[in-house]
Amino acid sequence: MSFFKKIFSSEKKENLSQEAKQSLDKGLEKSKTSFFSKLTKAVAGKSKVDDEVLDNLEEILVSSDVGVNTTLKIITRIEERVAADKYLGTDELNQILREEIAGLLSETNSGEATEFEIPKDKKPYVLMVVGVNGVGKTTTIGKLAHQFNKAGYKVVLGAADTFRAAAIDQLQIWADRVGVPIVKQQMGSDPASVAFDTLQSAVSQDADVVIIDTAGRLHNKVNLMNELTKVKRVMQKVLEDAPHDVLLVLDGSTGQNAFEQAKQFTAATEVTSLAVTKLDGTAKGGVVIGISDQFQIPVKYIGVGEGIDDLQVFNKHEFVDSFFK
Ligand SMILES: Nc1nc2c(ncn2[C@@H]2O[C@H](COP(=O)(O)OP(=O)(O)OP(=O)(O)O)[C@@H](O)[C@H]2O)c(=O)[nH]1
Ligand SMILES: [Mg+2]
């Protein structure tokens, strides 16, 4: 790479991350506004952090969908600081919260990455996307395909949600929009067979990334889980270590429901990473903090809008920065 190219590409990268930062700020706006207006009310007329302030704070965190267990951890940390420093002022509460939440998240395995990357030793890298209906699976796949494509990877999509004709059409629209190939069959065909074809096609095209869409709804939950297991098993006939990642998509705007879905899915099938969507337009952004803390599975991506660029790599440092800015 020439010197000028290097400068240009590093400038471009900075620009992009600047854009990403703005879109994160915008995506978290509702959550922040709601959180800080509650916090302002909770400390009104109070100069120091006392039991009453802590009680209120606990209520605010729970009502911001951080989740009870994670809230208790945060409150305990703050109590310890209050015990050590009896005159902790409420004007410092914001900073303290920020530090404690960052501290808590630093212990989780979510959010270390800053860029859309795939493991270098997997080719093609196979990503299977799962989740209940309507959470944003297909949209997330389209956005991911766009990011990987932009990064120079050769992407192939597989329409293994054969339960609805519209599901296949929807993925086709995304494939056309991004400009990547899609492997599909008729509605009602065997999803495992679509996944098999997709992997074969990807291997023969020397593709870098395969993303498999799956159904979010079937006649019942047991069917759905059995089907996912079968899709995986059949993919392994082409690539024995596929899928390399199973991404569970959760709708962040459903708050506690997202926790429930994560619990149920991770108990029923192997999930290796999480995406939390629809953080824009909701005040429930705190759910990402709770999910990162409560699950051993890393949150990798967050959805902050319906547009093609509205998917971000979840980075906990950026998230906390943006939330407490
Ligand atoms: N505001 C917002 N909307 C989103 C986001 N991600 C997805 N959506 C919207 O959520 C709706 C459902 O998204 P889909 O991608 O169709 O969800 P799905 O999980 O594939 O749904 P099924 O195929 O029915 O199982 C669509 O209207 C998307 O535009 C996001 O991050 N923000
Ligand atoms: Mg879909």
List keywords for this structure.
alpha/beta, Rossmann fold, eight-stranded mixed beta sheet, disordered N terminus, elongated, binds guanosine-5'-triphosphate, 12 helices, 325 residues, 2 domains, binds magnesium ion, Four Helix Bundle (Hemerythrin (Met), subunit A), 8 strands
Secondary structure: elements and pairs:
Elements: H1 3-27, H2 29-43, H3 51-63, H4 68-84, H5 93-106, E1 125-130, H6 137-150, E2 155-160, H7 165-178, E3 182-183, H8 191-204, E4 209-214, H9 221-235, E5 245-251, H10 256-268, E6 273-277, H11 287-294, E7 299-303, E8 311-313, H12 316-323
Parallel strand pairs: 1-4, 1-5, 2-3, 2-4, 5-6, 6-7
Antiparallel strand pairs: 7-8
Bound molecules: guanosine-5'-triphosphate (GTP) and magnesium ion.
Enzyme class: hydrolase
EC number: 3.6.5.4
Family: Belongs to the GTP-binding SRP family. FtsY subfamily.
